[in-house]
Structure formats: structure tokens, C-alpha cells
């Protein structure tokens, strides 16, 4: 699933979280069951519920897991946090971990390291990704990277080779000629619209030697970059290379509404850990490659990102038991077999050894992709500032849609993105 959170949903969640911080987060009463809240689809839920049951059987601790879609998750988590009823264990994203940590909505875990949490052999980059201000706030549940899903059957039907990791943005335009001529499946396009997806913008900037944000939380690109970004996608749209704005608007968040599942496009930006889940939803064969390059031979846009974290609620009265669950989730061999690589490549070598032989073809593709990014791989970027989520929801996503529907020109959208982002950053 491409990460998406509407402006209204983000602001609801953000305001509730801010209210919790302003009022002070009171410790929850100790309870018999550990509450776990996470986002994801049914496949992730089935795996997580199974491991929760395994932990209960081995520890005697009752678990109460609950899952929601991405867009429903953040408002509910923030509202529960504001009401002093936050879960004991929450799934956390790299984009929001700084905000939740600085507002004490999640707890530092350092006191449990070496005790309930055994992290001696944990991948250092993944461990570092869960730190805020030098303290550990999140345990990475897997390493992943942005990726492009490829419907290989659609390319075979059109009669051209599917792209590889060497592909470029210019190649999308060339592939459009073949797709538009073949007119398969009622007008399937080459690619979904990536103009309003923060990960694609970030990857494109990194290939140009820039970032979204500086280490001190300021904007790291300018109007010229933003205008060129929206112009690039406007040209692809005009050439019929990407889906229409009307079709893209059908994507409401769940995997089932995405362009590759609906059969609207043969390529779609996603994450490496989601190939397995998407393959369960389509009959066509899916593969995975990197994001397009800005020119032949240019790399460095990708990085191995913590796919998501488990964090312990700041108000939880069951922090040690929650830490024990986190340790079980990342290190138990039988749990690892159940979880596979749905949340990314395991961060412990011993767990990877257990998981590798159990993976099906798509799981192996995901593992090999993350392990062999080659020249696509760059350094881990600095953590985004707390207001990055608002910038994504209220600007990057919204402006991309406005350009797609013709409500704004690429030039105006580029100017609005930079001025709006600077304004939000100045207020945070």
C-alpha cells in the first residue's frame, strides 16, 4: 500500500495528539490484557493475531490486538492517547516517531535493553532508526525500501519487456506509446500517478543530491525543484502514460482500491514488504523493481528504511510486559516463520536464517530486492521533523491532486508547496 493519509484525517489525529501533550498524558490503569494497535490489511492482521496468541501461550499474558487501515489508524491512536486510554503497544512509522516521542506519547525503551529486550545482534542501522534524541523509542519490525510493483502479465500482453532496475522516467513515456497502442483491458496505463506521493518525491530529490528536510528540520529543496517535479508528472499525464486523476481518486487507502489491484495501471509505487500482500489480491504475476532513475546510471535515491516500529505507549502501566512482547515478536523462531517478510526483512541475523527457507517465491523476491539494491542505495536520511506528516497530508498530496484535476498549474503548485511547507515548519 502506498502510504496515504487525508488532510482531514491527519489534522484530526494531530490535534488530538497535541491536546494530549498539552494536558499531560496520565498513566493508564494496569490491566489484565496487553492492548496492541496496528495498521495493515487482513494478511498482516492474520499473522499478527497468530503471533499474539503464541506469545500469550508462552508467557501467560493475555493480548488484545486490534487493526485498522492506515487512514483510520492515526486519528484513533491520537484520540485514545488524548483520552488517557492509549494502547500498551502501538505500531509507529518513521515519519511520526519524532512527534510521538517528543510529546511523550511513546516511552523510551533503553531501560529494557539487555533485560526484556535482547538487541545484541540487531542490525545497527535499524536500531538507530528507532532513536529520537539518542534514546530508543521504536523497535524496527523489518527493513524495507520503496519499490515499484510490476504487473509482468500486462507487459507480456502489450508485447514489450517489463522494466528492470535500470529504468528511467523517460522510459515511462516510451512504454506509454506501446500501452496506448495496444489498449489492453479497457485502457490500462503504464503507471499510477506518483506526483502526490511523498516517497517518490523524496527519492527523486535524493537522486538530485537533495533531501526533503535538513537534519535540523528545515526544508531542503526549493521552488525550482517542486515546479520541475509537478511538470514532470504533468507531461506524463498529458502523454497518457499515467492514470487519470479521476481513476487515481478511486484509491482511498485500502490495498483493494489501488491502481494495480483495480487493473488501472501496470506499474505502481509501493514498498518492498508489500509484494506478498498485493500478490494475494491479483491473478496476474507481480514482480518488484526500484523507483525510476532520473537518468541512466543515476542512483542513490533508495535507502533501507525501518518499515515500521513497535513502540510502547507513554501512558502504559504494563511497559515491561510490552517490552517482552516486542522481544518475542522480533526474535522468536516460530513467530518469525509466521510473520515472514510481510513487514520487511527481519533485523536479526538468526531470524533471517529461520525465515529464508520458509519464503515463497514472492517473499524471496522481496528479501533479495532489499538485500541487493546495488547503486540504487543511498544513506539513511535524517528523521523528518514532527510536522512532516502535516506537510505530506495537507500539501504534497493535496497539491498533486489539484494539478492532476487541472485546478492548479505545476508552477503554482510548486510555489505553494515550498511556501506552505516553510510556513508549517516555522510554526512547529
Mean pLDDT comes to 92
From the coordinates shown, what is the CATH architecture of the largest domain? 3-Layer(aba) Sandwich
What is the count of DSSP helices, taking H or I runs of 4+ residues?
A: 18
How far apart, in Å, are the first and last alpha carbons? Answer: 28 Å
Strand content: 5-15%
- In total, how many beta strands? 13
> Could you describe the largest sheet, including whether it forms a barrel?
5 strands, mixed
Shape: globular
CATH class of the largest domain, named: Alpha Beta
Fraction in helix: 40-55%
Q: How is the largest sheet built, in terms of strand order?
A: 2-1-3-13-6
CATH topology of the largest domain: D-Maltodextrin-Binding Protein, domain 2
Signal peptide: 1-30
Keywords: Periplasm, Signal, Sugar transport, Transport
Main location: periplasm
Organism: Devosia subaequoris
Amino acid at each position: 500500500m502506498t502510504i496515504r493519509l487525508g488532510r482531514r484525517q491527519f489534522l484530526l489525529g494531530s490535534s488530538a495528539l497535541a491536546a494530549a501533550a498539552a494536558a499531560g498524558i496520565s498513566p493508564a490503569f494496569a490491566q489484565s490484557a496487553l492492548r496492541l494497535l496496528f495498521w495493515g490489511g487482513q494478511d498482516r492482521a492474520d499473522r499478527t493475531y497468530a503471533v499474539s496468541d503464541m506469545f500469550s501461550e508462552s508467557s501467560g499474558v493475555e493480548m488484545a490486538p486490534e487493526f485498522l487501515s492506515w487512514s483510520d489508524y492515526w486519528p484513533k491512536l491520537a484520540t485514545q492517547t488524548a483520552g488517557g486510554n492509549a494502547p500498551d503497544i502501538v505500531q509507529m512509522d518513521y515519519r511520526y516517531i519524532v512527534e510521538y516521542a517528543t510529546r511523550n506519547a511513546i516511552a523510551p525503551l533503553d531501560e529494557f535493553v539487555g533485560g526484556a529486550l535482547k538487541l545484541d545482534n540487531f542490525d545497527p542501522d535499524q536500531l538507530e532508526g528507532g532513536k529520537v534524541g539518542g534514546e530508543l523509542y521504536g523497535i524496527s519490525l523489518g527493513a524495507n525500501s520503496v519499490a515499484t510493483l510490476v504487473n509482468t502479465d500486462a507487459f507480456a500482453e502489450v508485447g514489450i519487456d517489463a522494466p528492470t532496475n535500470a529504468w528511467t522516467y523517460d522510459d515511462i513515456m516510451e512504454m506509454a506509446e506501446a500501452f496506448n497502442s495496444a489498449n489492453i483491458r479497457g485502457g490500462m496505463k503504464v503507471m499510477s500517478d506518483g506526483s502526490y506521493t511523498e516517497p517518490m518525491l523524496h527519492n527523486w530529490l535524493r537522486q538530485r543530491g537533495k533531501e526533503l528536510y535538513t537534519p535540523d528540520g528545515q526544508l531542503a529543496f526549493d521552488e525550482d525543484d517542486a515546479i520541475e517535479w509537478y511538470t514532470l508528472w504533468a507531461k506524463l499525464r498529458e502523454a497518457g502514460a499515467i492514470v487519470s486523476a479521476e481513476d487515481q481518486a478511486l484509491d482511498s487507502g485500502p490495498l483493494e482500491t489501488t491502481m494495480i489491484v483495480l487493473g488501472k495501471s501496470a506499474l505502481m509505487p509501493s514498498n518492498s514488504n508489500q509484494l506478498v500482500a498485493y500478490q494475494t489480491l491479483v491473478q496476474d504475476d507481480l514482480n518488484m523493481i526500484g523507483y525510476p532513475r532520473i537518468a541512466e546510471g543515476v542512483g542513490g535515491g533508495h535507502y533501507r528504511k525501518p518499515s515500521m516500529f513497535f513502540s510502547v505507549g507513554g501512558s502504559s502501566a504494563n511497559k515491561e510486559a510490552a517490552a517482552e512482547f516486542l522481544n518475542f515478536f522480533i526474535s522468536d523462531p516460530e513467530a518469525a516463520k509466521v510473520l515472514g517478510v510481510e513487514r520487511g526483512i527481519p533485523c536479526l541475523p538468526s531470524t533471517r536464517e529461520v525465515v529464508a527457507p520458509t519464503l515463497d517465491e514472492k517473499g524471496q523476491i522481496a528479501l533479495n530486492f532489499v538485500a541487493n539494491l546495488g547503486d540504487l542505495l543511498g544513506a539513511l536520511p535524517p528523521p523528518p521533523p514532527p510536522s512532516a506528516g502535516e506537510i505530506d497530508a495537507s500539501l504534497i498530496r493535496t497539491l498533486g491532486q489539484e494539478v492532476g484535476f487541472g485546478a492548479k498549474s505545476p508552477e503554482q503548485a510548486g510555489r505553494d508547496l515550498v511556501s506552505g511547507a516553510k510556513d508549517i515548519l516555522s510554526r512547529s
